[in-house]
User: Fold these one by one.
Assistant:
Number 1:
Amino acid sequence: MKQTFIAVLFILAGAGNIQAQNTMGPAERRMTDSLCNALSKVDVNKITSKEEANSIFTDCFSRYTSLLMEVAEERKIDFSDDAAMEGLGTDIGKDLLKLNCGSFLKLAAKMAGSKNNAESKSTTSGTFKRIENKGLNYIVITDPQGKEKSFIWLRQFTGSERFTSGTTALVGKKLKVTWQDMEVYLPQAKGYYNVKEITAIDIL
C-alpha cells in the first residue's frame, strides 16, 4: 500500500506530461468521490508541513482499502502486484485532479512540498482588473506595460479577505502580488501546467 501512496505523490510533485486515462469504472468513480468527500472535511489551512499533508492523505486513502480492492478487481489488477498497484494509485490521483476536486488540489499543494522561503517566491506589481473563475479563482492584474498577469488562488493567503466579498471597489487599485511557481493539472486544458500561486497580496 505504501507504494500506492508514493505513486500518488509522484504525480503531485510534477511527474511530467501524464495523459488522461480512459473513462472510470463504477468502483473507481466511487473511490474517487469517496476520497474527495473525505478530503473536503479536512481544514487544509491548519496543515503546516508537507509531512502532515502526506499523513492526512494517506489516512484518508487507507479508509477505503476495501473499495480500492474493488477498483483493482474492476481493472483486473492483482492486489499483490506492487507495480500494478502503483499505477492504480497514480490513476486515482489523476482522477481527483481531472475531476477538479478542490479539496485535493489544495492538499496537493502542500503534499508537493511548496517552499515557503523567500528565495522561492516572486512579486509582481500592477493594477487589479478582475477575478476569473475557471473552476478555480484567478486574480488578474495589468502590469505597468498594460499586459494582463493571472495568478491562481488555491488557498488562504495574506490579504485574501479583501477579495472574498465583492471586488468592485478594488478595480483600478495598485497591488503587489507575492507568488510561487507550482505545477497543477488544469481540467479545462486537460494537461499539467505551471501556474503562479498567490501567497500574499498587498494593496499599495
Number 2:
Amino acid sequence: MKNISKSFFLIIGLALITSCTSTKKIQKNMNSNSYSMAYIMDSKISNSKDSISVSIDTILFNPNIMSDTTKIKREKGWFLPLVLVYVWNSQNKCIQGKSMIEEDIPSFFKTSLIREINRSGNFHTDTLNKSDYSLELSIDEIKTEGPYVSSGFFYFALYVYGYSYSDRAGPAISNLKVSYKLKKGDQIIHSNSFCSEKGTEQINKRYTNTKILQQDYAVSMVEATSYNFKNTIELIVTDLNTYFNKQY
C-alpha cells in the first residue's frame, strides 16, 4: 500500500512538471534566438525616375516603446484537483522584445526605405545629403503580443493512470505606426503618418517539444513585424510619389 501511495504522488509530480509550462521557461526559449525581418522586394518597379532626390535625415525611435527582451506575463490560471483527476489551465501573454529581432530596428527601417525608394519611387535617394529635400522619420509605435496557453489533465485509478497536455500559441497581433516629415531646407512642406496591423495564425498543432513551439511562435511574431514595416514603407513611397507628381 505504501508503494502504491509513493507511486501515485510520483506520477502526479512528473505529470505536472512535464505538462504545465512555466512563464520563465517560455520567456527563456523565446529569447534564446533572434530572427531576421528580411524585407522582401516585390513591389512594382518604377520605370520613370525624375530628377528629384531626397536624403533620409533622421530616424527617430524611442527605445522605451519596446522592451529589450521578450516578456511573458501570467494573465490567469487555475489548477483544479478533483478525486483522482487533476485539470489545469495557464494563460499567459507574450510581449515581443528587441531580443527577438536580429536587426537594429532604426537601421533596418532606413535601409529598407532606401531600397524601396530605389525600386518603386519616382524619385531618387541622395546618400551624399546634397539634396534640397530631406526626410525625418519616426517610429511612433511598435508592438507585437499574443496569448500562450498551457492546459491538460491527469487521472489515476488504482493501477491505471494517464495524462494529456497541450500548449497553444497565438494568434498574436502586431502593430506599427510611423510618421514622416518632408523638408525643403528647414521648412516642413509635407507630412503624413501610417499604421499597419498584422495578425499571426494560431499555432495549435501538437509538439513533442514545446521549445520548438515557442520558437515557431517567435518567428511568426517577427514575420508579422516585418510585414508591417514593408506595408508602411510602401505607403510612404506611394505618398511621396503622389506628392511630387502634384508638385511637378
Number 3:
Amino acid sequence: MMKKYTSIYPLIFLFFISCQTEKKDKKTTENEKDSSEIIVAIQDDSLAEIKLHKKNIETGFNIDSFLQQPFDLYRFKSTKVASLSGSSHMKKYHLVPDKDWVAYRFFLFDPKKPNQIVNGKPKRNPQLGYIGPNKKKHHEMMKGLVITTYQPKDEFQHDYRNPNEILVELIAKYNDFDLPELAFVGIDSATVVSKLGDRFFYKNNCLVYTNKNIALIFKIENSKVKWLRYIRLSFYLNKETEIVGLYNI
C-alpha cells in the first residue's frame, strides 16, 4: 500500500504544478491584454481596429499639453541661421489676436550645421528634410516646412528670433532634422496613435487631434502620413465642423 501512495504523490504534485502554471499563464495573458491597446488604422475612409502589442505612449504624456506647445518655436529657430519670410494673409478660420499683431510666414530654413554630403563635402541645404523614420531617406522641397506666426508690434517686431511671437500654423510635407517633436511625415497611422493616444476623430482622410481651438491634422494616404498641419483656429473644432480648405493644403 505504501508503494501505491508513493507512486500517486508525483501525480498529485504534477497536477498542482500544472494548475499553478495554468493560473499564471492566464494571469499573464490578462496583464498583457491590460497593457496593450487597440489602435485604429486608417484604410481609405473607414476605421479598422488592429492590435498593437504594447502601449507606446510615454509615461506622463498628455495630448492637451502637447497641443498647447508641441515644440519650442524660439529654440527651433535658434537651430537655423535664418529663413525666407514675408507677411501672411490669414484665412477666416485662423486665430485672430485681440491685440495689434502682424502675421509672418517663414520657410526655407537654413540650418546651422551641415545636413548633407555632396561630392564628399558637408553642405547646408535649407530645402532638405526626410520622410519616415529613416533620416537618410532625404527629400528636397522649397516649402517642405512652413511656419506662420503672429508678432506683436513691439521692439522685437521683424526679428527672425522673436521671443514674443505666437505660433499660429505649421505645415510639414517632410520631417525637419531639427524638429523631432513633429517628425510624423511618412510614419504609419498606427504609430501616430500609439504615440499621441486615441482621442482623435477621422474626417476627409485626416486623423485629427484637437484641444479647444487647436488642431493637429494628419493627412493619411495608404495608411501613412502624407503631410501634417498644426493650426490655432478662431473657434473650437469638432468632427461636425465644416470648414472649406481646413483638410487640404
Number 4:
Amino acid sequence: MNLAEMERRLALIVRDPSLEPEFAGMINDAILEIAADFDLPALRLLNPHSFPVTTGNWIWPLPEGYHKKLFRCLDSNGTPVKVLDRLEELEALDLEHTETGNHVTHVAVVDIGVDKRLCTYPLANDTLRLWFYEKPNYLEKPGDVPACIPVEFHERVIFPKLIIKNYQLLLDQVENFDTKPLQYWEGKQREGLYGSAAGPVGFINFLVKARGGPRRHGGRDPLP
C-alpha cells in the first residue's frame, strides 16, 4: 500500500472527514513505532556509515538517519570497536575524557532528549564505520510506500497500531460492528503480530524467519 491507498483505507474505517488531514501523520507515527518495537531487516544497514571523529571531543551527534541499535563498529584500520551497553562503562575507562590514542577502541550510544550521541574512548583522529538500524522513510507523497514493512503486513500491522495509538481521538469515529471497538482492534493487532491458528503467519514469526530462525506455517504463539 502506498500513502494514498492507506489514507483511503483509513477513511473507510474512520467516519469523521475532519480527521483526514491528520491521517498521514498518524500513519507515519505508527510506522515509526513499529520500527522502534521490532528489528526490521529492511532498516538494518548493510553498508556502514562513515563517521569521522577527532581528539577535539568525545561526544558526537549521530547521523540524522540513525534510529536505534548500533550493532557493529570498526575503526579506520578495520579493527572491531567495542560497543558498550551503557555510558557508565565508557566513563569508567576515563572519567575525565582526556586520554588519547591512535584509534577509538570503545563507543557507547546515549539519548539526549530527541537527539542521540555517540561517545568515544579514547580521544582519537579516526574514521569509524558504523552499522545500525535506520529510521523508516517519512511518507509524504501519495505514491510513497512504507518499504520497511512487507506489503502483506501493511494492513494487518499498521492499521491496528495506529488506531489503538490514536484511540482516544478516534473514540467515536471507529466504524465496525463490534460493541467494544478497542478490544476489536487489540485482537486485530494480536492476529497481525502473532498470526492465528487457521490464518497466515504473524509479523513476529515472519521476522524470526527473516533472521534465519525456524519456519512456521501458522499459529498464534510467537517464536523466541
